[in-house]
Amino acid sequence: MKITKPLNLALVALAGFTFACGGGDKTSETTSTPAVETPAAPEKEISLEEKYQDDPIYIKGLAKLKTSDCTSCHMVERKIVGPSYADVAAKYEATDENITMLAEKVINGGVGVWGEIPMPPHTALSMEDAKDMVSYVLLLKK
Ligand code: HEC
């Protein structure tokens, strides 16, 4: 009997709180409903990897790129030693001419387009592999 009374009081207090909170929620819910229309927001932050991951050019080029040392100097969206792939893609249209020209540069190496740091030659690469890699790079447009 000694315990029941404070317990009852606590329960009443709890019920009171729940009711008060519930009531409060309802009012704020009704007033803020028109403003809660933002489900489109996450779409904006999609990465280039996610954007193109299902493209056959992406899949093939990336697989070949991973067998070489490209990633030690290039990242998709950030410049490290070399320009980001996104920057290269923004500079060149993916035409046959540009793909051949850039594939030759990857094979032979080169300097002066993006700065003072040279890209070393990759003479072990076939023209076909270099072109697939470059096609992947030029796909990565924002
Ligand atoms: C040791 C660092 C390094 C490695 C490894 C490297 N690159 Fe580069 N890459 C560079 C630099 C530096 C440049 C900028 C050259 C310039 O300014 O002309 C560049 C430029 C490029 C360009 C743009 C060329 C142009 O003329 O605009 C492409 C495409 C490219 N790299 C692809 C690749 C691929 C594919 C690989 C792997 C096979 C690779 N790179 C490996 C450093 C590197």
UniProtKB/TrEMBL annotation:
Heme c binds at C70, H74, M119. GO terms for molecular function: electron transfer activity; heme binding; iron ion binding. Gene3D superfamilies: Cytochrome c-like domain. Binds 1 heme c group covalently per subunit. Residues 1-20 form the signal peptide. Pfam families: Cytochrom_C. Residues 56-141 form the Cytochrome c domain. Keywords: Electron transport, Heme, Iron, Metal-binding, Signal, Transport. The keyword Electron transport applies. This is Cytochrome c.
